[in-house]
Design goal:
The chain contains 27 helices and 33 strands. By secondary structure, the chain is α+β, with helices and mostly antiparallel strands. The strands form 9 sheets. Strands 6-5-9-3-2-12-15-14 form an 8-stranded mixed beta sheet, with no helix packed on it. A 5-stranded mixed beta sheet has the order 17-18-19-21-20, covered by helices on one side. A 4-stranded antiparallel beta sheet has the order 10-11-16-13, with no helix packed on it. Strand 14 (169-175) and strand 15 (180-191) form a beta hairpin. The relative contact order is 0.06. The chain binds tryptophan and zinc ion. Residues 306, 310, 329, 332 line the site of zinc ion.
């Protein structure tokens, strides 16, 4: 493809160019005649102009890709060939009246669809994925979220597809000739095309019922392949809990007579919130104790909740354009995080949510793909379903709640939902609802939507013993990001407390008198530098800053080790109690990284070992928290602190710390391990989950010793475990060891579970994540394993994705890991660009590494770029990375 043609196809879309649609669609009548190779789609649209047509008609543009057009009629008459234009991307014509009926017939080939967007086949069943721009692969349509229409869908298919589903309520069904049948669905709520869904297949139905707060009965249905019908209990319970929670927390009631979830094995993302018919990656539906881990169970609960919550934050109120994606995603992630905080434990849930942000979103914000929560341009929208839009977007919503308080925030969401029901709106509209409901001005706060990069707070403190005053001085700055060299100061909520030397909390009174009397308060930063002075402070306190992680920022504050130990022991804020330990460990590991690089012998500070021992033996009530408190900061988080990232040294230093702890504390670790065995039958309540995670944390430390009796312990747990959490924890340890039990255990696991694809994913992932030196060889062999299938996204993520996140092996100084991932990106791009683009992101931070790795990574990026007919998805990421 020549460069000109490529720039045509790879055009940048800008937020500032947004124009309302020229034509609106009121109703859509769809009829599908399903066939694996040639499905006919007939569409009847009632269309009207969105303008006063006095100054003549504007063209009507209908997007469409890879469609065969059979029929095109305006008001019943075929449109003359000379009156319309069709190219690879769209059909357009200038209508002759301001209101008309358009009839379109297209033919598509679902069996050839490997991108998994539009209409495709998964395990022999028909399914759709239309977000963001997949509906244009089904029929010609104004495929943009600000065109909302009422859909009626008739599906005709062979009876070997007994289940026929679409959005809304079932209004008719019956037999047709030639062994075919049909079903008609009507969705009374106007929606954009990206929320359309169709399913046809041989599926089992698991049914339940929910009564809403206004006493309306709702039919709940989960559709899965027949052999999975015994794995839906947890998803169904999660759904009912979500429905109840949304009524209580946000006053949101469900609105159709039926709510359906369908699980499919081939899916690009986690799940999709199509109105009334959510389609899920089966990973986020199916679970039984023998097959799913505790974290799988929590993943299911979180994703079921997320998609259900979209019914209001996304479906009833949707996005005006794709730059507003965080309007629905940031808000809905926040809602699912809040739900999980209520269902599990607020501190522990917050710790794991922040870990995602710090270990992954901060990297995104520091790299060449960095973008604001509301991006101002994109080439391929699929590349902007990011941690920034989702997770940083959720933090932005959380900050508004922190600033306005729970009641003020609820007033704001009530106003937002009532004011914008049935509309396609913007993040500005969301903020305006918050402002209007609370009579506040959030103009400066809105910079969180438009400025990219992670702000940094530098904090200094001074205590005046004579005056009894304590002053915190906070400066904020934000590093430059692509296209944004200079940043304005942001409005940042900084939640704080002060601890006395005995660990007790002090009463907080600001000298300005503006806030007082409580032990924790929220300082509002607005300027590049600000000071806050507290009065009546009897002795120099220890500050506890950014409680509950009140803003997505980095904090620089030089606490002493003693101060960190005090916070670890006494801070009533659970998040900060955990974080004090993390900061202490991070500082220590980073010093050791320097020692590794200088070739110095490594030694671990005894005070750190003692602190770890105290946490280990403390017998905390919340065992999940205790397990988190014993964990070391992630390698990706540690990398963030290094000017030039040295993945081998980080790995070595971190492992040295863990091994030393295991060696010195072998007996207490063994004691914790045996004291936390399940006392009775397997259960998945919070207490049992906590017990298992603490026990398995202890076992993971012990397994680093690579001694025979610990291998036996792992093997015994592997063989005896009646639940997947324990079996998998043991197997991961074995897979990271050179011990002879390793291969037997992996073979045994394969033998037991080879017919369950979700468990095979775990088997692939464990081997690809192994730290052993021959991992790349193993991964290459596994590509040819009969259970591997490069067309299935879950399998690709398990084997290839896990290898790309295996820092030591991916960054092998030989460059072999880079070459391997580049080859896979190229191969996968020809089938599924979305998945290839996720994988190529492994290279985006190449400039942060040493010169040798830089040139190896750049070489692979250039090799990918020189591939003929590269997708827009991969092309965008590679070119932006190479700038
Ligand atoms: N809206 C989905 C969510 O709940 C995300 C999603 C599912 C998606 N499938 C997709 C986005 C395919 C882009 C392409 O978060
Ligand atoms: Zn979502």
């Amino acid at each position: 493809m020549d460069d000109h043609r490529r720039t045509e196809l790879h055009k940048t879309v800008y937020l500032k160019d947004y124009q309302p649609p020229d034509w609106l669609v009121d109703t859509v009548d769809l009829r599908f005649d399903l066939d694996e190779k040639a499905t006919t789609v007939r569409s009847i649209l009632t269309v009207r102009s969105n303008h006063d047509t006095g100054r003549g008609m504007r063209p009507f543009v209908l997007n469409g890709r890879r469609l065969t057009l059979n029929v095109l009629k305006q008001d019943g008459r075929p449109l003359d060939k000379a009156r319309y234009r069709v190219d690879d991307e769209a059909l357009s014509f200038t209508p002759s009246s301001a209101k008309f009926v358009l009839e379109i017939e297209t033919v598509i080939d679902p069996s050839a669809n490997t991108e998994l967007t539009g209409l495709y086949l998964s395990s022999g069943n028909f399914c759709t994925q239309c977000e963001a721009e997949g509906f244009r692969r089904i029929t010609y349509y104004p495929d943009r979220p600000d065109v909302l229409a009422r859909f009626t869908t008739t599906i005709a298919a062979n009876k070997k597809y007994p289940v026929l589903l679409s959005n809304g309520n079932l209004t008719g069904s019956g037999d047709l000739v030639d062994g075919r049948h049909f079903a008609t669905w009507h969705d009374p709520f106007p929606k954009p095309a990206y929320l359309f869904a169709l399913i046809a297949g041989d599926l089992a139905r698991v049914q339940d019922r929910f009564t809403t707060m206004s006493r309306r009965p709702i039919d709940l249905n989960i559709f899965v392949q027949h052999h999975n019908r015994d794995k839906c209990t947890h998803a169904m319970e999660s759904l009912k809990q979500s429905m109840k929670w949304d009524e209580e927390a946000y006053g949101r009631e469900y609105d159709l007579d039926t709510f359906m979830i369908v699980a499919v094995d081939d899916f690009n993302m986690g799940a999709m919130e199509n109105k009334g018919l959510n389609v899920f990656n089966s990973k986020y539906v199916l679970a039984r104790p023998e097959t799913a881990t505790d974290s799988d169970y929590q993943g299911i609960m979180g994703v079921v909740a997320h998609e259900y919550f979209h019914n209001w934050s996304g479906d009833r109120v949707t996005c005006r354009d794709w730059f507003q994606l965080s309007l629905k995603e940031g808000f809905t992630v926040f809602r699912d995080q809040q739900f999980m905080e209520d269902m599990t434990s607020p501190g522990v849930q917050r710790i794991s949510d922040v870990a995602v942000l710090r270990n992954s979103q901060f990297r995104e914000d520091a790299g060449p793909m960095a973008h604001p929560v509301r991006p101002d341009s994109y080439v391929e929208i699929n590349n902007f379903y990011t941690l920034t839009v989702y997770n940083k977007g959720a933090e932005v919503i959380r900050m508004m709640r922190t600033l306005l308080g729970p009641a003020g925030f609820r007033k704001g969401t009530d106003l937002y939902f009532s004011r914008h029901d049935g509309q396609a709106v913007t993040t500005d509209d969301f903020v305006r609802a918050m402002e209007d409901a609370n009579s506040v001005d959030l103009a400066q706060f809105k910079l969180w939507y438009s400025q990219a990069g992670t702000p940094e707070l530098s904090v200094t403190r001074s205590y005046d013993a004579n005056a009894g005053t304590y002053t915190l001085t906070v400066s904020q700055s934000c590093p430059p990001t692509p296209g944004q060299p200079d940043k304005k100061p942001m409005h940042i909520p900084l939640a704080i407390g002060l601890l006395g030397k005995n660990g007790g909390e002090l009463d907080l009174k600001l000298d300005s008198g503006s806030k007082e009397g409580s032990k924790s308060l929220v300082l509002e930063l607005r300027k590049p530098q600000e000071s806050f002075t507290f009065v009546d402070i009897p002795a120099e306190p220890v500050p506890s800053l950014l409680r509950h992680f009140s803003a997505p920022v980095k904090v620089k504050l030089d606490l002493t080790d003693e101060e960190r130990l005090l916070l670890m022991a006494h801070d009533p804020d659970e998040f900060n109690r955990w974080d004090a330990g993390q900061q202490y460990a991070a500082k220590l590991i980073l010093e050791l990284v320097q020692d590794v690089q200088d070739g110095k012998p490594l030694a671990l500070d005894n005070r750190f070992i003692d602190a770890f021992r105290i946490t280990l033996e403390s017998g905390m009530k919340d065992k999940s928290f205790q397990a988190f408190a014993l964990s070391m900061p992630a390698e990706t988080y540690l990398a963030d602190f290094m000017e030039i990232i040295d993945p081998s040294a980080i790995h070595e230093a971190r492992r040295f710390v863990q091994e030393t702890l295991a060696a010195v504390l072998k007996q207490p670790l063994l004691a914790v391990y045996s004291a936390h065995q399940d006392p009775g039958p397997y259960r998945i309540d919070q207490e049992s989950i906590g017990r298992r995670s603490l026990k398995n944390m202890a076992l993971a430390y012990l397994s680093l010793l690579e001694d025979g009796d610990v291998c036996d312990l792992c093997l015994r747990q592997f063989r005896g475990g009646g639940n997947m959490t324990d079996v998998l924890a043991a197997l991961i340890n074995l897979a990271n060891n050179e011990c002879h039990e390793r291969d037997d255990a992996l073979a045994m696991f394969y033998g037991t579970w080879k017919s369950d694809p979700l468990i095979m994913d775990k088997w692939f992932a464990i081997q690809a994540a192994s730290r052993l030196s021959n991992t790349l060889g193993t991964v290459k062999k596994l590509l040819h394993h009969p259970a591997f299938n490069i067309k299935n996204p879950n399998r690709v993520r398990a084997l290839i994705g896990s290898f790309a996140s295996n820092a030591v092996r991916f960054h092998d100084p030989s460059g072999a890991g880079y070459a391997f991932i580049a080859e896979q990106v190229i191969a996968i791009d020809a089938m599924n660009p979305q998945i290839a683009a996720r994988l190529v992101s492994a290279f985006t931070l190449w400039k942060r590494y040493d010169a040798k790795r830089q040139s190896l990574m750049r070489g692979q990026l250039e090799r990918i770029l020189s591939t003929p007919s590269l997708s827009k998805d991969v092309h965008e990421i590679v070119t932006k990375s190479l700038v």
